[in-house]
Design goal:
single chain, binds zinc ion, 11 helices, about 475 residues, five-stranded antiparallel β-sheet, 24 strands, binds arginine
């Protein structure tokens, strides 16, 4: 989903004499387009991210993933159908989807059989006829296999993990391609629907709003839908024996899942029970909560030693709660719902826009709780921060989860606040989230937004020192 681009197309067509205010050109052969001679070529095998050039693909823009899957915990086999609605962004002779360790048995495009072949972790699809630029098309992939996570030497494993009683899918910067065919890069956000069939007695928790649950012959189908555009790595599912708490908060579904093996009233459950309160506090700082549902899932598995801001339902490795109640991590993952999820990255290099903001959200929450003021959190971090040689705005592909991104990212925001003043900075946090809601963002856009919120003040020296410098900046 690319909002900016669509708006641009409308303007061009209007200038060419088109009437009507339709928002999509997909099904409407307009004058200039109809007389254009198409020139079909293959979509690129990567989305063009400088840090991870093979992630995602080019030539199309996905609008929705609709998955109907079945998981057998006995064999570890995942099987089913993915229906992908997309729009071509060029005249396409063929295109790639990302799909790792799973085999496609049948592919159709617009209802006609297409040929497909696996090439590494890509599925190369050649439709029976070329696909015209700006036209919508539908791909249906039937696939199956025993999924496994992808391994990144520097960043660890991400994707589908099988467990004793089920499975979970979590990972950043990539994970989705281990369980469905996907344009696996955050620049192509799409809505997401999941119907997951598992043996009776197991629970399935995923993103968004729960739908109907049906059962037949010993299997239960759970349905979930995320109606706001979502980056693919933010798709998640947890299958197993869970205690699910279902309620509403602010009129929206609030769903929390904690493994049956974890105490019902232990620190994990207690921490996640603060989700509504923390969301409400963050909304006073960042503006309205951006999604239709909320909640969280705890995963008890030693392979998951982090938490992830999976959209509207963060996943927390239970190691975060081994020392007792921890609302800091909840504030962090909920902060990401604004910064990281609603405002997703256009390229991975800019990940401080996610992690710096989520760390700053922790500081705000701690101040609200009375543990430490934001100024104290800054001072503590500034005093102990070691390696200033790694720039926050350019951490390198192996450094995207480094302290330069998290701690120095949050310090950058505090330095910016000192340069802009508290009032202008508070306004920026909200206007940034509002203007790019459900979109994609870059550091360059943020720098411009900050200068605008500061009434035209030149903030370049602050950004150069804090985001791109390689030495310790003076205390702001
Ligand atoms: N974005 C996650 C968070 O800040 C961290 C993910 C870490 N991923 C990893 N592969 N180590 O909560
Ligand atoms: Zn984070």
């Amino acid at each position: 989903m690319k909002r900016g681009l669509a708006a641009g197309i409308v303007i061009v067509l209007a200038a060419g004499g088109c009437t009507g205010g339709g928002k999509s050109t997909a099904d409407r052969p307009s004058g200039p387009a109809a007389s254009r001679v198409p020139s079909f070529s293959p979509g690129a095998p990567g989305a063009g991210d400088p840090y991870f050039p093979t992630y995602g693909n080019g030539g199309y823009d996905v609008g929705e993933y609709d998955l109907a899957l079945r998981f057998d915990p006995g064999t570890g086999r995942l099987s089913g159908t993915a229906t992908i609605t997309a729009t071509a962004t060029q005249d396409l002779s063929r295109f790639n989807l990302d799909l790792a360790h799973l085999a496609a048995s049948e592919v159709t495009v617009n209802g006609r059989a297409a040929t497909s072949r696996a090439e590494g972790n890509e599925l190369v699809v050649t439709p029976a006829a070329g696909l015209l630029k700006d036209r919508a098309f539908t791909v249906v992939v039937r696939y199956a296999g025993v999924p496994e996570p992808l391994n990144n030497e520097a960043l660890g494993k991400g994707g589908w993990f099988r467990t004793a009683d089920g499975a979970f899918a979590v990972g950043q910067p990539e994970s989705a391609s281990t369980w469905f065919p996907v344009n696996d890069h955050p620049s192509d956000k799409a809505t997401f629907r999941l119907a997951m069939t598992v043996p009776d007695g197991l629970e399935v928790i995923s993103n968004g709003v729960p739908g109907k649950r049906t059962n037949a012959a010993g299997w239960t189908t759970w349905t979930w839908s995320e109606g706001a555009p979502m980056a693919s790595y933010l798709a998640t599912v947890a299958i197993g024996q869970y205690r699910i708490t279902t309620g509403t908060h602010g009129g929206k579904p609030m769903i929390v899942g904690v493994p049956a093996s974890v105490p019902a009233n232990g620190p994990a459950a207690k921490s996640l029970a603060s989700t509504g309160e923390i969301t409400d506090f963050l909304a006073t700082q960042f503006g309205p909560y951006p999604f239709d549902a909320n909640g969280g899932v705890v995963v008890a598995d030693e392979r998951l030693d982090y938490a992830l801001e999976t959209q509207s339902r963060p996943v927390y490795g239970d190691t975060f709660f081994s020392g007792g109640v921890n609302t800091g991590v909840v504030a962090h993952e909920l902060g990401h719902q604004w910064y990281g999820d609603s405002l997703a990255l256009e390229r991975w290099q800019d990940i401080w826009l996610n992690e710096g903001f989520a760390t700053y959200a922790e500081w705000l929450w701690q101040e609200h709780e009375g543990t430490a003021t934001v100024a104290q959190s800054f001072d503590r971090t500034y005093a102990k921060f070691k390696d200033w040689s790694e720039p926050t705005g350019k951490p390198g592909p192996d450094g995207i989860f480094d302290p330069a991104v998290y701690d120095r990212g949050a310090m950058t925001l505090y330095a910016l606040r000192r340069a802009m003043g508290d009032t202008a900075f508070a306004g920026l946090l909200k206007s940034w989230a509002a203007q790019h809601r459900d979109g994609n963002v870059t550091t360059t856009e943020f720098m411009a937004a900050a200068e605008q919120a500061a009434g035209g003040t030149d903030l370049d020296p602050v950004f150069q020192a804090w985001l791109f410098g390689t030495t310790k900046p003076p205390h702001p």
